Structure to design on (313 residues):
């Protein structure tokens, strides 16, 4: 029997699907969803929910004690595009929420943590193609700086205090159940919605901007596989590179045109172009593949099929 799990930031793009998958595997009552706002009907109706602010240590501790929580998945954060508009708020949320869960584990109140990092930890001086696990990291966004600092603190808490914290650097995630929350790769979700609704899409990134992306099912499976792996297999305690596909806006448009031949894309790059230009184009995830047998399942055309079929319903 699995001990209770708390998800913080459960109503967001990843949290919603992660909560439902964990409830499916371990039982609805074992997975406590929490957020500063209520989520969709399916999530809210399927199990326990707590209104919880990730920056409030005492409030998290109360929930942990009440439900005898053993593991926390911390999904609350301010994402890349929004963080550029509110740098200090982003730093406060992204760092303090992480310290709160790391300190709960340090004090033995929980035994395992999942905290997501991002390809935003890399920067303009990082090798762009097949970006290695260990390489130059000089993030130039507030979000990237917070994720890189977070990675350093995770490794520090593991080495110094034995905190069992696990992490992956998610690429841009594509899903149909919940809209994305203010990232630079949001276009790769919006484009499917608008292809079906309007038959055209104006992209906020320019032609030729190749970024690493992943279908949500792969990301959720990676997350839970990492959390279920024996501790001794997890050699990287900062965060694992994780990859499945990389594409440009014109390539995703071509993939959509196989199903909607009249679909057109135009380009109007905004401030998010600069963020995208500082990120890698493709990622070397061999450490994750070797150490805990990560393997992606969805390529671009399979993702397009899933997105269009489900959004049409
Ligand atoms: N979605 C992606 O493409 C992507 C890529 C790389 C990394 N990540 C990381 O994965 C994690 C989850 O991302 P997401 O896309 O689901 O984000 P999201 O913005 O969709 O969801 C974040 C959730 O956190 C909640 N939240 C905000 N402030 C809070 C607070 N103070 N207390 C409690 N909850 C709060 C929001 O209400 C929201 O439901 C983040 O750490 C993000 O940086 C996401």
């Amino acid at each position: 029997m699995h001990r209770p799990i708390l998800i913080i930031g459960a109503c967001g793009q990843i949290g919603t699907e992660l909560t439902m998958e964990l409830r499916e595997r371990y039982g609805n009552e074992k997975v406590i969803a929490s957020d500063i706002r209520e989520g969709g009907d399916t999530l809210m109706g399927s199990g326990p929910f707590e209104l919880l602010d990730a920056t409030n240590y005492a409030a998290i501790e109360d929930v942990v004690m009440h439900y005898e929580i053993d593991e926390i998945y911390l999904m609350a954060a301010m994402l890349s595009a929004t963080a550029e508009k509110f740098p200090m708020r982003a730093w406060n949320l992204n760092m303090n929420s992480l310290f709160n869960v790391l300190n709960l584990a340090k004090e033995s109140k929980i035994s395992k943590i999942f905290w997501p990092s991002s390809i935003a930890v890399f920067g303009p001086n990082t090798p762009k193609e097949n970006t290695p696990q260990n390489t130059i990291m000089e993030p130039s966004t507030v979000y990237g700086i917070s994720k890189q600092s977070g990675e350093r603190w995770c490794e520090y808490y593991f080495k110094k205090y034995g905190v069992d914290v696990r992490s992956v650097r998610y690429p841009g995630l594509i899903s149909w159940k919940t809209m994305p929350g203010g990232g630079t790769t949001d276009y790769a979700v919006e484009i499917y919605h608008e292809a079906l609704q309007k038959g055209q899409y104006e992209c906020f990134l320019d032609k030729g901007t190749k970024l690493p992306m992943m279908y949500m099912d792969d990301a959720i499976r990676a997350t839970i596989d990492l959390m279920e792996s024996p501790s001794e297999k997890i050699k990287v305690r900062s965060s694992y590179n994780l990859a499945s596909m990389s594409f440009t806006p014109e390539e995703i448009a071509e993939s959509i045109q196989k199903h909607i031949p009249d679909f057109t894309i135009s380009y109007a790059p905004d401030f998010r172009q600069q963020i995208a230009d500082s990120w890698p184009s493709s990622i070397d995830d061999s450490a994750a593949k070797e150490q805990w047998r990560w393997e992606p399942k969805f390529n671009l055309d399979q993702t397009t099929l899933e997105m269009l079929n489900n959004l049409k319903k």
Remarks:
- The first helix runs from residue 13 to 26.
- The first strand starts at residue 5 and ends at 8.
